[in-house]
Amino acid sequence: MASSVHYSVRVQPYFANWMCGNEPQALRKLMGIVGRRPNILSFALGWPDPALFPRAAISAALVSAIDENPLALQLGPPLPDLRREIAALMRRRGVACDESQVFLTAGAQQALDLLARLLVDPGASVVVEEVTYPGMHMALRPLAPTYCYVPTDERDGMDVDALQALLSRTRPRFIYVMSDGHNPLGVSLAPSKRRRLVELARAHQVPIIEDDPYGFFQYGSGDPLAPMRALDDEWVYYVGSFSKIVAPGLRVGWIVAPEHLIPKLSIVKDLSDIDGCTLVQHGLARFLAAGALAPHVDTLRREYRERRDAMLGALERHMPEGTRWSTPQSGMFVWAQLPSTIDTTILLEHAIERGVAFLPGPPFAPGSRIAASAMRLCFASCPRDRIEDGVATIGALATQALDRPTPTARMVGA
Amino acid sequence: MASSVHYSVRVQPYFANWMCGNEPQALRKLMGIVGRRPNILSFALGWPDPALFPRAAISAALVSAIDENPLALQLGPPLPDLRREIAALMRRRGVACDESQVFLTAGAQQALDLLARLLVDPGASVVVEEVTYPGMHMALRPLAPTYCYVPTDERDGMDVDALQALLSRTRPRFIYVMSDGHNPLGVSLAPSKRRRLVELARAHQVPIIEDDPYGFFQYGSGDPLAPMRALDDEWVYYVGSFSKIVAPGLRVGWIVAPEHLIPKLSIVKDLSDIDGCTLVQHGLARFLAAGALAPHVDTLRREYRERRDAMLGALERHMPEGTRWSTPQSGMFVWAQLPSTIDTTILLEHAIERGVAFLPGPPFAPGSRIAASAMRLCFASCPRDRIEDGVATIGALATQALDRPTPTARMVGA
Question: Which of A184, B213, B349, B403 meets the CB 3.0–4.6 Å disulfide criterion with A376?
Answer without folding.
Answer: A184
